[in-house]
Structure formats: C-alpha cells, structure tokens
C-alpha cells in the first residue's frame, strides 16, 4: 500500500537554496572520498552559517521594533479628533528634556504591560514642542507630563515614574469611579490589597451621589468601592445607613458630615495611613491634604537608640492621639536630613523632630530636646495653638533667600559631579566678564591720563606765554618816561603864547 506523504510547497528562493545545499553536500562527499581535507564548500560553510544567523537577528530586531511601535504610538495634531474613541495614557515630552529621556524606556515597558494584560488603555507619546497648541489645550506646563484622557476628562499623574505605579494608575482611572464588592470574599481580597480602602455602604441616596462625584474627582489618588451591609464582617458596626467608611491602620472610621465637613475634604485627608515613611514625593502629596506634617528625622543606615526612640514616640502619638491630632497632623519619619535641609535652607540635626507647614513653607523646631512622649505632645499642641515660634515662610525675604540658595546648590552640585564641566560652565563666563571689566577700567584710566597730560600741556603753554610777556612789560616800562617827557614838551609848546611861538 502506497503511503501518502504531505506535500510541502516551497517558494522559489527556498528551492534554490535547497539545491545549492545538496550540491555542496555532493562536492563535500567527493572531496572526502578523494582524500582532500578541505574544499571550497567546507571553507565557505561557516560564513554562510554566520550570514543566516545575522539575518535571523535582523529579522528579530525588526519584529521587536515593530512591536514597540505598536504598543506606544507617536501622536500628532490629528489626535484631537480621534482621542474620544478610546482611553489614552499620553506622555507629553520635549526632545531636549533629560527627565523625558529617562522616562522613555519605562514608558515602553508601561505600554507592553498594558498591552499584554488586555487593558483597554492605549499608550501614546506626543512631542509637546512640535505640537505646542495641543499640549496647551491639555494644560501641559512642564516636561514630562503624564495624562490619562478618558472622554472629556483629563487626569494628571503625579506619582513616582515607575512602571508599576504608572500601570496601577492607568488601570485605576480607566475603570469605573466606584467599584462594587458583591461578596465577603471580594471584600477580604480588596482589604489585603489596599492599605487604605474607602467604602460606601447602603442603597441609593444623596450621600451616594456625593460619593460618586468625589470618587470621580479623587480617583487619581485611591480606589473607591461600594457594598451592601451584608458584605461587611460582623466586627464592623455602623451607626447608621447609608455611611462612608475608610478602613486603615487596622481599624475603620466613619464619615460624619457635621464634624468632618465636606466629604471631598474628609477623603482627601484620610487617603494616607496615619503614620508612614516620608520622602520628597510623599511630602509633596501630603501638602495637598492641608495637614501639618510631623516628621522624625532619622538615619536608617546607622540606627541609634535616640533615632528608634523618636520614631517610636511619633508612632505612638499617631495611634493613641488620633482623636486630637488626626484632623490637623500627618505623622511619619524620613531617612536622612538632605531633603529637609534643602527645604528649610538650613541644617537640621539627626535625629530630631520637625513639623512642616507645606502650604506656606513654615516649619517648627522644638526649643529643647524631646525626650519623653509628654514633651512631644506638648510641642505638637504648642504648634496647634500658635504658641510655638514659626520659622521660614514664603515672604519676599525668604523668596530672595531661596533664589540665592538654589543658585548656590546648583553650582555646588555641578562642581561635585563634574569639576571640569563646572570650571568650564562658570569659569568661562567669569573670565569674559573679567576681561570686559578690565577693558572698561583700562579705557577710563587712559582717558584720565590723556586729560591730565592735556591739562599739563595747556598749563605749560600758559607759563611760556607769561615768560614771553614779562620782557615786553619790562621794555614798556623803560620806554614809558621818555614818551612822557616828549608829551610834556608837546604840552608846554602848546601852552606857549603865540608871540613866543613866533619868537621861536
């Protein structure tokens, strides 16, 4: 019985390549049979293999490039008319911006992550300098600017520029403002995933409408959920329904319209843990809550007993004195004092306690070392009631000081990182200015010298003229009496009688 074999259709290029390979194989066999140890076919075999490998690498590179271009799209001025059809995550950049260049590889990772996860968010980038009109419409004022565009709304991203944080932001904002939790299992799962969780409990009500509006406004910062009372654990008891609850710090706290003010303000203040590690970015975000920030400045790389004691006391105040200070204070610790020193334009010792008012750039330092919990509470109360002395601020003097401090810091940082570059950047302009000043001063001195010489020359000429006039005056004095005698004789003759004149 004749077996049927699959027929493989070859394109012309592949058929020719197979025939050449078969011919080379026959030549190689003949070469071996005749005793030759090498032939042209054997010699050329490695080069053909390398060529095939290079072709494979080039094809793979082209494939990867096309994939990268597919996940991150370059946008132009036509984007304005098509953006409403999808949810877009856009990076507005400038080609000369160093931060934009640093973000570029991360941005492609973001695009790949969202594409592989099946997210509906499309990722793009736009040169804000080439399309300045469109970037102005989206409110771009710095580079890079990351925005998620969802319908007519544009959400600014202000978080850390890492792949995970940007992807989490895109997935959170692209979804519904309020997510439903239909079961206890889902509630427990969300509690494990989120350190701070906002939950609306109850049915339709005016409070729910406010909650939805606040969620649409603050979705850039945190998640918002809704559930029925059956989903909550038995340990959670609410004073009334409907209610808005925040779960954090190992407990839960209920929103009270009469004591907590507006729901938006309450959510904005409660979206952080009562105590947390603080860095420069976190401090910037905490400033948007309107709270004062009490910080224990410690050195985590070289922990000491004093650092541990201050950190523990701050944590105890955040937990045990929540009812007293939570409305007005945020608590945490910061590793090192570099950022604080640049912020207050001074030097803060490590370890120490400082309270910052980021709204007006004021800060408060204890007048004496804080050694007990009672002293720390007293210091915080003195800041709260206004008896503590505030330093810093945003007045005109502080602004001028800030400009000088920033200029000094920039110059020092350049010299520390690259002394040669620093000498070139600052030495060359100073050298040019010095030469200009020297030229101006030299020109003024030469003009003064010329004026002095001219005045001296004029004085000498006047002295010479006076010397020439003196002999003339002397000669005139000698000739003067004779002339007077002649004149007198003439006068005498004129006074004589006519008869005398005749006799003469």
UniProtKB/TrEMBL annotation:
Reaction(s) the record says it catalyses: Catalyzes the rearrangement of -S-S- bonds in proteins
EC number(s) from the headed UniProt entry: 5.3.4.1
Keyword Mitochondrion: no
GO cellular component terms, semicolon-separated: endoplasmic reticulum membrane
Localization per record: Endoplasmic reticulum membrane
Pfam families found in the cross-reference section: Thioredoxin (PF00085), Thioredoxin_6 (PF13848)
Residue span of region Disordered: 448-504
Protein origin, superkingdom: Eukaryota
InterPro entries recorded: PDI_TMX3 (IPR052250), Thioredoxin-like_sf (IPR036249), Thioredoxin_CS (IPR017937), Thioredoxin_domain (IPR013766)
Composition bias, Basic and acidic residues: 493-504
Residues in Thioredoxin domain copies: 44-175
Keywords: Membrane, Transmembrane, Transmembrane helix
Keyword Cytoplasm: no
Topology of the protein relative to the lipid bilayer: Single-pass membrane protein
GO MF term list: protein disulfide isomerase activity
PANTHER family per the UniProt record, alphabetical: PROTEIN DISULFIDE-ISOMERASE TMX3
Function: Probable disulfide isomerase, which participates in the folding of proteins containing disulfide bonds. May act as a dithiol oxidase. Acts as a regulator of endoplasmic reticulum-mitochondria contact sites via its ability to regulate redox signals.
Name the UniProt record assigns to this protein: protein disulfide-isomerase
Organism, scientific name: Umbra pygmaea
Lineage: Eukaryota, Metazoa, Chordata, Craniata, Vertebrata
């Amino acid at each position: 019985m004749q077996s049927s074999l699959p027929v493989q259709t070859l394109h012309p290029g592949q058929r020719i390549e197979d025939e050449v390979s078969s011919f080379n194989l026959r030549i190689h066999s003949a070469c071996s049979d005749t005793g030759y140890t090498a032939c042209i076919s054997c010699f050329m075999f490695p080069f053909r293999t390398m060529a095939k490998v290079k072709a494979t690498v080039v094809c793979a590179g082209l494939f990867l490039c096309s994939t990268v271009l597919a996940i991150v799209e370059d946008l132009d001025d036509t984007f304005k008319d098509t953006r409403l059809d999808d949810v877009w995550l856009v990076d507005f950049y400038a080609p000369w911006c160093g931060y934009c260049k640093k973000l570029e590889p991360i941005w492609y990772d973001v695009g790949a992550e969202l594409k592989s996860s099946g997210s509906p968010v499309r990722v793009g980038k736009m040169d804000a300098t080439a399309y300045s009109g469109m970037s102005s419409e989206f409110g771009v004022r710095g580079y890079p600017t990351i925005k998620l565009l969802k319908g007519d709304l544009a959400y600014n991203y202000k978080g850390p520029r890492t792949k995970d944080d940007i992807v989490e932001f895109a997935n959170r904002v692209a979804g519904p403002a309020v997510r439903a939790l239909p079961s206890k299992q889902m509630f427990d799962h969300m509690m494990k995933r989120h350190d701070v969780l906002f939950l609306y409990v109850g049915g339709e009500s005016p409070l729910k409408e406010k909650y939805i509006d606040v969620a649409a406004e603050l979705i850039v910062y945190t998640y918002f959920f809704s559930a029925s009372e059956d989903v909550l654990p038995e340990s959670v008891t609410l004073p009334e329904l409907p209610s808005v609850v925040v779960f954090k710090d190992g407990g839960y706290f209920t929103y009270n319209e009469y004591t907590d003010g507006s729901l938006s303000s309450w959510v904005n203040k409660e979206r952080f843990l009562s105590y947390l590690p603080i860095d420069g970015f976190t401090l910037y975000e905490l400033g948007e809550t309107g709270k004062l920030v009490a910080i224990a400045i410690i050195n985590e790389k070289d922990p000491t007993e004093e650092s541990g004691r201050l950190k523990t006391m701050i944590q105890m105040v955040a937990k045990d004195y929540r009812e007293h200070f939570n409305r007005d204070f945020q608590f945490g610790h910061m590793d090192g004092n570099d950022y604080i020193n640049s912020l207050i334009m001074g030097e803060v010792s490590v370890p120490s306690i400082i309270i910052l008012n980021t709204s007006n750039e004021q800060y408060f330092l204890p007048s004496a070392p804080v050694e007990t919990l009672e002293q720390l509470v007293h210091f915080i109360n003195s800041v709260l009631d206004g008896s503590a002395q505030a330093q810093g601020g945003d007045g005109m003097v502080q602004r001028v000081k800030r400009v000088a401090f920033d200029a000094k810091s920039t110059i020092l940082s350049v010299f520390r990182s690259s002394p040669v570059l620093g000498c070139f950047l600052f030495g060359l302009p100073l050298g040019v200015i010095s030469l200009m000043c020297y030229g101006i001063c030299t020109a003024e001195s030469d003009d003064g010298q010329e004026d002095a010489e001219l005045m001296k020359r004029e004085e000498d000429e006047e002295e010479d003229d006076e010397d020439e006039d003196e002999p003339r005056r002397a000669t005139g004095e000698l000739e003067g009496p004779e002339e007077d005698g002649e004149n007198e004789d003439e006068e005498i003759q004129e006074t004589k009688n006519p008869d005398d004149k005749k006799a003469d």
